[in-house]
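User: I'm designing a mutation panel for Maltodextrin glucosidase and want to avoid disrupting the core. Could you give me a predicted structure to guide residue selection? Please restate the sequence first so the numbering is unambiguous.

Assistant: Good idea. Sequence first, for numbering, then the predicted structure tokens:
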Amino acid sequence: MNLPFIFHSQTIDGLAFNDEQVTVRLKTETLDFDSVYVRIEPDNEEYLVDMAQVGTAGELLLWEASFRPNQDRDVTHYVFKLLKDGQQYWLDARGVQKRIPPKEFHFKLNVNHQPPSWVQEQVFYQIFPDRFSASKSESDIRHAYAQYDSASIVKPWGDAVGSHQNTGAREFFGGDLKGVEQKLDYLEQLGVTALYFNPIFSSPSNHKYDTTDYFTVDPMFGTNDQFAELCEKIRGKNMKIVLDAVFNHTSVHHPWFDIQQKGEGAYGNPQSKFRDYYFFEGETNHYIGWKGIGNLPVLNFENEQVRDYIYQSEESVIKYWLKPPYLVDGWRFDVIHMLGEGDGAKNNAHYVAAFRHATKSVNPNAYVLGEHFFEATQWLQGDQEDGAMNYYGFAHPVRAFIARQDIMYDPINIDGLEFKAWLDEARAKIPFSNQLSQLNQLDSHDTARFITLVDGDKRKMNIALAMLMTYVGTPCIYYGSEVGLEGGLDPDNRRCFPWNEIESSQWLSLYQQWIKIRKQCKPLQSGCIQWLHCTNNQLAYARVLGREAVVVMINLSGNECSIDLPMWQLGLEVSQVISLLDDTEQVDYKGHISVNMSAQSCKLWRLK
């Protein structure tokens, strides 16, 4: 089906807005359209606003119109309607359609809530503290844990990780905050600009998702003062800090719950003042645990004391770590979609918005990041989260396309067309500013490492890195990936960082190259995405911002191929084309280019 070229960018190239007016710009090929409209619903009824032709961009026509943003709700939806020769064409956030699209795919703009602009400029690095770097000797680590918790199992750095069924959560390798501090120069040389820490607060496990004290750094990681010093040194490197917050549930050893009944906790004590902090069945000891897990009792946000403690009061946990001397730059909220009142997450949206308000009341530019393993559309309309851990809109489709596995490690086989459709649909459902603030990862502490999924295939890893560093959203590298650290299912994906392998790693320079490209090219940080080519195994897209673009070409097939690129669709006057991966490549730029690609390879051009 041949459709006309029609495109709208929600960057500064195609969108300007304030509280009173939205101005949109549309690009089309040079056809004699009978009518061009932008369609809005200010009072839930259709209004068609005429668009005027205002100029040209290369071989493209430019159309423009203005309208008032919705006054009764945060999000304004709009979509474009074009008529020609008895046919109609609609442009929604996925692309050109032949009929009016459902509202979920209309372009979205939230003029009242915008994510902090600094997020899209970052390259994040995720640190699992116990496995990243240890500042103490093995004997000192053993002695410290023996004093702190005799049930802990201390293992030599680099030993195999035990399974959860055995001793996995109780195994410690001694990574700590001082160890992170000692590696800040390394992280700076790698090129990352923001650090996301898995939980650092007091907890009996190595993963710390079972908190016992939200106001205290776990003693085996360090002290609050040491964390304050680390924060200052991280800021001195011009890096950002995001902490992991586990507010849906606590440890059974939290004083509020107190499963060992050492104090006044809720377990076994129906008269406890903390009883209503959790969900008990009458006066029994039956309670709701996260996903049925008994050692993670779920908090009851209907209780005002819980609300005060977590987010509501000026002394709340959320606000405490955003203030001096720590001044962290944001929160990653664990399983944020599950918290609320009862086991059905009642009033979840209210509490997520409250978390946002509490965070922004201290620092309006703080990053509010939610963890969602699946679609997070409803939390990403601007009034709740700035971004999500983008499993659904990035990690899942990339894994399916390149590694041929889904998130449950079942086989899946999708081609490039299905891959593109998945990406487009996920993006189209949320405002563009939130798309840019999505946290994109190839792997994390909850998934097998990508290098393991592709059996160490360097060409596939390079293609995956190309997607990570050039696709819409903010990239995040899971510690150790940059030196080829392997890892299967959790907890095997939490192995110790192999510091003795840095010099011999074949991967480090590759990661450094991609990080440098990402940081140098503004279109990769905040540009729109324009698809130029898509077949079963070949993809090409451009990230465009102003007069500059970066063109990404991918061939996933095992054979050489030729990719045709309609460069005229970018509407740019190009004076220089630079190959970012191969400085010997010469590019003859013209309106239509045919590019030869070797098997399982990628190319990257910068257009100015």
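For picking mutation sites, this is relevant: The mean pLDDT is 96. The chain is about 20% helix and 25% strand.
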